[in-house]
Amino acid sequence: MKGSVRFENVTKKFGDVVALKPLSLDITPGTLVTLLGPSGCGKTTTLRLIAGLESASDGRILIGGEDVTHLSATYRKVSMVFQSYALFPHMTVMENVGYGLSVKGMSKAEVRDRAEAGLETVGLKGFGARLPSELSGGQQQRVAVARAIVLEPEVLLLDEPLSNLDAKLRRHVREEIRQIQQRLGLTAVYVTHDQEEAMAVSDRIIVMKNAEIAQEGTPFDLYDRPASAFIADFIGDANLIDVEITQSGEPTEIALLNRRLTLPLSSKATGLAKLVVRPHHIRLDRDAAADRLPAEITYAAWLGNSVQYTLTTPVGSIFAIGAPQPLPFRQGDTVHLGFGLEDVRLVPA
Amino acid sequence: MQRTAGLWLLIGLAGYALLPWYMVAGGFWSFGWLSAMGGDARPALLWSAGGRGWLWLPLTGFAVAGASLMLARDQLAMARGLVSAGALGLALMAAQGLVILGNSTRLGLLEGATQPGMGAGALVVAAALLFVLTTGISGLGRGRGDAFITGMIGAIVALVGIFVFYPMSFILLRAFELKGGAGLGVTEFLPRFFAGEIWSPACLTGLGYCGAALNSLMLALATATGTTLMGLAFALIFTRTNFRAKRLLRVLTILPIITPPFVIGLVLILLFGRAGTITEFFAYAFGWEKTRWLYSFWGVWLAQMLSFTPIAFLVLIGVVEGVSPSMEEASQTLDADRWQTFRFISLPLMRPGLANAFLLGFIESLADFGNPLVLGGNFNVLSTEIYFAIVGTVADPAKAAILSLILLSLTLGAFLAQRKWLGRKNYATVTGKGDSGRNAALNDGLRWTCYAVALPWAAFTLVLYGLIFFGSFVKLWGYDHTLTFEHYTRAFGIVYRNGIHFTGAAWNSYFTTLTIAAIAAPLTAAVGLATAYLLVRQKFTGKDAFEFSTMLSFAIPGTVIGVAYVMAFNFPPIELTATGLILIIVFVFRNMPVGVRGGIAAMSQLDKSLDEASITLGANSATTLRRVILPLMGPAILAALTYSFVRAITSVSAVIFLVSARYNMATSFIVGRVENGEFGIAIAYATVLIVTMLAAILALQLIIGRRKLRRADRIEAH
Lengths: 349, 718
Description:
- The structure holds 2 protein chains of 2 kinds.
- Chain A is α+β, with helices and mostly antiparallel strands.
- Chain A folds into 2 domains: 5-229, Rossmann fold (3-Layer(aba) Sandwich), CATH 3.40.50.300; 237-348, CATH 2.40.50.140.
- Chain A contains 8 helices and 20 strands.
- A 6-stranded mixed sheet of chain A has the order 6-7-8-3-9-10, with helices on both faces. A 5-stranded antiparallel sheet of chain A has the order 13-12-11-14-20.
- Chain B is mainly alpha-helical.
- Among the domains of chain B are: 1-140; 214-257 and 316-463, MetI-like fold, CATH 1.10.3720.
- Chain B has helices spanning 2-18, 44-49, 57-71, 75-99, 120-139, 147-176, 189-193, 196-199, 212-240, 246-254, 263-272, 277-286, 297-322, 325-333, 338-367, 370-375, 382-391, 397-423, 444-471, 486-492, 507-537, 543-555, 558-568, 580-604, 608-616, 621-632, 634-650, 655-658, 666-675, 679-704; strands spanning 100-101, 104-105, 474-476, 480-483, 494-496, 500-502.
- In chain B, a hairpin with a 3-residue loop joins strand 5 (494-496) and strand 6 (500-502).
- The relative contact order of chain B is 0.09.
- Classes of the chains: A alpha+beta, B mainly alpha.
- The A-B interface holds A 51-53, 55, 70-76, 78-80, 82-90, 99-100, 103-104, 132-133, 135, 140, 147-148, 151, 157 and B 75, 141, 144-146, 607, 609-610, 612-621, 623, 627-628, 631-632, 709-710, 715-718.
């Protein structure tokens, strides 16, 4: 189907280094899928394999249902927005945007018309005569997007497109990219290492680690039902506390320190596990109670609308975020922690 | 793939059926062969039908290629077919060429068969077979499936193979050849290789002359040490002091590049020779004895110091500048004084650069031919001994081959040492990040030491160059100092009588030199930059070997390559001696490494995502090269063009074996004059060459240098 991307057991080796373990994935046309992961996880390699900038060591790659495994990048119907934008410094904005059209052999008038339309799409009408060096970072970014979309690619690839922008601009540009993608109904594959960015733009997220897929799903799935300690920690912050599942099934019974807790979750087997507790689910209280964990505040950072605490507890160091208090907690104070049993999750140890 | 391969198949068939297969009298471009198509200039098709049946062989390659194009069921099968077709065709073609050599045959095959050297038709057929092969390889998914890339790799491998490795193999063969055509073996090679006359240490014990190999080695060590220290002094003055005339120092660095060989030696003779000005002065004023000290180790060493110090300077400027100011600032904030900072921080960081300059000086000194030829006297070195073994009264090619092997192992050893110890090690502290701050100034003691060493030397060098100019206008140096234009009119006289007549003796070689340099320069730049592109931008198996073999010709001394070319290209299948083509080829492959290095440096500064952007936007590699990379590489192209043009004019060592009556080069003309003692005309000619080269450099700067994008050194993608 037009715009779909499919990997069938694709692997990539650079000499002895395995950059990608056998990987299979399916990308639905018209969706924006993010490849997310720490550096060196294989996400950029995956993107470059789709583009044809790397050739697969093994397996099949299909774009729009057509086998393109051995097709060179020149002839694949994908275009790419680069981390560094890769605008040609010796060409004007118009020449940059029209480059792909003109190498296809389109007439000059048509190239100009389409390039102008492309610039209008990204809100840069009238900037055609400038050189890339005369534009701001955000504008250069949008030229790069325009250059990629005027070719009407089946798949638009974006390689960390926001990493060279400052924090404020990032939010703005990522909204724009998302809007353009939805308006044109493009299939887009987006690479980033920033989980917040991934959550903000994606229909689906594929989290990668050590050259393979760690988990994939909608942003909500990944946050709410992490499959591993890595995902729990990577997608939104999480405290991971060692526990033992004493009774599996639903509900699950766990042992935390010397206490037994019954969680409204299902689990598969008994044994060691990790309890996922999000920082903002932790309540701090000055008073002790039977179901509260005593803790000492080793560090408190006031951020205006919230306070971040680092706490020392019998189960290890805990990170918590709370609202500012009228009578603030201070470093060295002893507090008592609690959390709602319905807010926590379990992942394998 | 199908279209590309089909096109090459047609081109190959056309070459086979229409172009003269063998070399034609008068050269291909005179088109005299059009009228002789039935005679000697027959295409292969007619030859093979008429007696030379072995010329059917290349056609098998085309037949297999055609069959695979028409019959193969899928891409992979077709690609395999094309690969085997190209390989088979090339192998058969090479085999027939190597078996039937002119009037004799090898291995007892096809006895009685004869054929001359291959010509235009053979070239086209070979190229077509090669590109059918590489197109097939691209079809197997190599080189990201890009036929342009695999074709480029194939072409460069083939060229380097034919024009570097093939001739070098002749040196090896000759060196190991047994007397009387008894085959190959080490029984004669070993005694000759280690012969006393080559390695004799007699001069060290005061018992006579040393062997050429030992002389070369000692000279190279002395020159390398001297040039490195002197270069360092210049580089420190240039980068770490407030010395006023820095631009003048910079001029010193380009002088040796545009100085024809012998010139330094000649001027030294005019000053320090037995009848030299300074010798005369000391004899007159102090009654010193006039000696022939210049024609010895010390004279050659002095000339080499003058010639190669600027090269060390050029290398060391980069090294000294490469030491990050923040490291020196860190050292100073830790309470080290300037001397301690230099001694314990800067100098250790420069160590690899110093080693690099040393090895470069070592290789240059070993390969130097001009200075020892003029000043050597009884001081024999390998490069001149090789020359005399070929052109001397008793020509001894086997001796030349063995001496070449010795010289080659010395330079190659240094080259390998350089790559092994320094190639990967990177102390350069220049990072992409803006590193503000200034390099620490030198302490007083060191600064004055540098001044005391370097400035008199710079003055001496400038005086020498002044004398070159002056010397070309005096009648007979040392005897008759009246000013005259006589040397210029003899060399470059023009007579207006019924039109313009170039009557001067030098015009012929002058025009030949310029023509050949002008043809060779763009070819060198193209081959060098194409190689650089492949090395920087493409991934392929055997890339390390590819890089090594393209850089190898840097380590082969010119004399050695000259001998090798004479041995290899004097008879079929590739018969090129006495043509202009062989001169062009020798320049292209000798100067290519510099184009490669420059191209690599320039291309590494172009963000790789620029090419990738172009490729993903639907441009193929050729378009990307033309529309994105080349426009951004202006300065590198300029440097490669300039350098190869100038080197083609000043080079002598390889050329001297390859010139012919028809294609005489300026440098070998000057050698002739020097040998006849006509110093005036030699110096006048050299002056004209220097001026010509300066003019050419400036013109190239004007044409290409203008297209600068902006001042930033690093061109980043935006």
